[in-house]
């Protein structure tokens, strides 16, 4: 006799702790931020590649910079769209109507 056991579902807390593959961070600066932090201000980094705070070139007495978290590094819309771009879409059909075989 075979006995089938169903896998036990993972608790909600464990699912939330899994690292996301493309998790990204950006450095958020304040008015008193150093020049090194201001140079990195508009960049997103994969969380595993992000520089540690305070930055190596930080010259302030207390660093107030923080990380802002994102699901991925993309800042704009995705490249793929559901409809083709009319400016770049080919207007003429270049394929033959016949197939490769003589009886097509």
What can you tell me about this protein's structure?
It is built from 2 helices and 3 strands, in the order αβαββ. With 104 residues, it is α+β, with helices and mostly antiparallel strands. The protein has a domain of 51 residues. The chain has a 3-stranded antiparallel beta sheet with strand order 2-1-3, with no helix packed on it. The protein is flat, with a radius of gyration of 26 Å.
Give me a quick take on this structure.
With 104 residues, this protein is of the alpha+beta class. The protein contains 2 helices and 3 strands. The protein has a domain of 51 residues.
Portion in strands: 5-15%
Distance linking N and C termini:
56 Å
Strands of the widest sheet, in order across it, are 2-1-3
Largest β-sheet summary: 3 strands, antiparallel
Class inferred from helices and paired strands: alpha+beta
Output the radius of gyration.
26 Å
Shape: flat
**Number of helical elements:** 2
Which quaternary structure do these chains form? single chain
Percent helix, as a range, is 10-25%
Low-pLDDT runs of 5+ residues are: none
Number of separate strands = 3
Q: List SSEs in N-to-C order.
A: HEHEE
What's the rounded overall pLDDT mean? 77
Q: Which features does this protein show?
A:
single chain, alpha+beta, three-stranded antiparallel sheet, 3 strands, 12% strand
Please give the structural blueprint.
Layout: H1 12-17, E1 24-28, H2 35-39, E2 44-46, E3 66-70
Antiparallel strand pairs: 1-2, 1-3
């Amino acid at each position: 006799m075979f006995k089938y056991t169903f896998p036990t579902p993972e608790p909600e807390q464990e699912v939330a702790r899994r690292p996301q593959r493309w998790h990204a961070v950006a450095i958020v600066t304040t008015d008193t931020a150093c020049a090194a932090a201001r140079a990195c201000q508009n960049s997103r980094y994969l969380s595993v590649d992000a520089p540690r705070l305070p930055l190596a070139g930080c010259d302030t007495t207390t660093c107030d910079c923080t990380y802002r978290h994102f699901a991925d590094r993309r800042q704009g819309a995705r490249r793929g769209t559901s409809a083709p771009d009319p400016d770049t879409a080919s207007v003429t059909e270049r394929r033959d109507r016949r197939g490769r075989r003589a009886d097509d």
